[in-house]
Amino acid sequence: MGLGTVALVSQPISIKVPIGVTLSDSYSTIQVCDKLESAPDGVVLDATRTAKFEPIGAAIIAASVAERRASGLSTRFRLPVDEEARHLIREIQLDRLIEGRSTDANGSLTIRQLSALDPSYTASVAELLEAVPGMDEATAYPVQLCLNELLQNVFEWANSRIGCIVLTRWFQKARNVRIAVVDRGVGIPARLRSLRIAGLHRAKDAEVIIAAVTHPKLTSRVGRAGGLGLKTIHETVTQRGGRLTVISLGGKVAWNAKVQTISRAVQFFRGTAIEIDFRPDRPVKSQHEYVSVF
Fold first, then answer.
1. What residues does 85 pair with on adjacent strands?
2. How do residues 237-258 score in pLDDT, each as one tens digit?
3. In 3D, which of 274, 93, 267 has the Cα closest to residue 182?
4. Tell me: the pLDDT tens digits for 187-241?
5. Are 91 and 141 part of one and the same domain?
6. C-alpha–C-alpha distance, residues 193 and 200, integer Å
7. Is the domain of 49 the same as that of 97?
8. pTM of the full predicted structure?
9. Which of 13, 87, 265, 271 could serve as 184's disulfide partner, Cβ 3.0–4.6 Å?
10. Exposed / middle / buried, residue 261 (Cβ in 10 Å: 0-12, 13-18, 19+)
């Protein structure tokens, strides 16, 4: 380097996280993750302006970071300025997971990357929730059932090289549990179409998701009954006044207790992201099916 020559230091690429990493703003989160997965090593994921993180949004981001790590790429993370958002990030240890640092392997309510079905993990979640005021073994059991079903789905058919990201949260004020499970596998529509199930070959992705959740005889397991296990989850969640949301490939579908349908353009998501949101201590009620296609 000659006298007077100034060395140029390249600045790391910074990708801004949306203000709300939420279920309602999931498309913006997915767009950010698309940028993240194609970015070079050492990219900075900047969440300084983010004010709200919800389970499914945090899990979608964590899954994209896991994809980067599987490709040998590192990611830096800037914490939110908002005090409540910063506290949540540290509580669920999302910052540690993003930067590849060790997290609490025994943490029931911290964000986790799982590579295999772990019954002890789902049991620990149920056990922890039993200690919440108003909860007992009978009311916490549906949480364990739904979480087991979601994880079993991933490890039986998703073909996701990162396994999955899972986050369970108990919200004391609203008295509800939210569970998010995200993989980066083949996606529900692609999996079911590959089995050449009648009526699904030309159906839209959202229509295939609806069939996977609501048709009792539809199965992704050749020669076996049981389907994706989503019908059981759908019934368990909605009968307790909750909501089930599924995002996969070009479809995003939600269910609760009323009948209504809404449609709009979809941001493609490779893999499957599922969130259940319900109050497990509510009595089981019969109800009409609700389908909302966003």
1. none
2. 888 888 899 999 998 998 886 6
3. 274
4. 999 988 887 777 787 888 988 898 888 876 665 454 444 445 788 888 888 888 8
5. no
6. 6
7. yes
8. 0.90
9. 271
10. exposed
Q: Both 282 and 150 in a single domain?
A: yes
Cα(55)–Cα(49) distance, rounded to whole angstroms?
Answer: 18
Tokens 């089930």 sit at which residue?
244
Return the structure tokens found at 57: 């949004």
Domain that holds residue 34: 12-103
| Contacts with 152 (C-beta within 8 Å, 6 or more apart), sequence order | 117, 229
